[in-house]
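Fill in residues.
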């Protein structure tokens, strides 16, 4: 496994229109051409968040979970079809089928290396997850990437987000962040983005894994090892 990459829902979808792909959808995914030996994780954007909110799935619910899963699966299918068009052999791996919370998250990721050995590219996504005594809750792609990197140590975990990286007080992109104490949300524009960015950094720091956060223009650089955006590095030398 050469890399694990999450592409955020805000990059792949139009967050303002339910179940609508973003204008950049095709061009973003075309960057993956020739990069079959990695794991792709995608977010939900307008194919999951509005539906999950409507039914209170974030707090725990059984009602509405199939609607959320169906919707994100539709986005997953769109992504698989695009990847196949550019020559990859993608395989859907629905996170809800390999996850359980008790209440800490257990993810069964062993099959990923076998799928890659066959020359196929696993495509996972944020999803509903069965949660002890709560019905289902939501697992984000950010948590999935942290767990995959923890287990497989690719040394190349990345997040393609709607922001160019983690920002400082003045709104400049930091080269590196080592702890949550260094995180500030003053430079961020929208609260939605702030929450998303904070969670992303925290998940990696909690798991003790390194990851790079960059914007959509940084995706090619990430895949070609040119180190865009901010490095989240919980254990600097
Ligand atoms: C959310 O996944 C999953 C659902 C709401 C079903 P993410 O948290 O990874 O999605 P984005 O990237 O924020 O859209």
């Amino acid at each position: 496994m050469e890399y694990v990459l999450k592409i955020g829902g805000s990059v792949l979808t139009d967050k303002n229109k339910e179940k609508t792909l973003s204008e950049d959808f095709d061009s973003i995914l075309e960057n993956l051409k020739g990069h079959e030996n990695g794991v792709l994780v995608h977010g939900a954007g307008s194919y999951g968040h509005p539906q999950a909110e409507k039914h209170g799935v974030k707090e725990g619910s059984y009602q509405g979970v199939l609607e959320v899963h169906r919707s994100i699966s539709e986005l997953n299918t769109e992504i698989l079809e695009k990847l196949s068009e550019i020559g990859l052999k993608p395989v859907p791996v629905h996170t809800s089928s390999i996850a359980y919370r008790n209440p800490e998250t257990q993810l069964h990721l062993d099959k990923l290396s076998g799928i890659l050995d066959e020359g196929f590219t696993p495509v996972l996504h944020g999803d509903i997850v069965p949660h002890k005594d709560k019905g289902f809750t939501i697992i984000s792609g950010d948590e999935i990437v942290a767990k995959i990197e923890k287990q497989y140590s690719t040394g190349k975990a990345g997040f393609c987000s709607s922001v160019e990286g983690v920002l400082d007080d003045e709104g400049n992109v930091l080269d590196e962040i080592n702890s949550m104490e260094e995180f500030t949300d003053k430079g961020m524009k929208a609260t939605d983005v702030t929450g998303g960015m904070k969670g992303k950094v925290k998940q990696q720091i909690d798991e003790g894994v390194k990851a790079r956060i960059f914007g959509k223009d940084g995706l090619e650089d990430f895949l070609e090892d040119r180190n865009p955006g901010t490095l989240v590095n919980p254990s600097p030398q």
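Confidence is low (pLDDT under 50) at residues 190-194.
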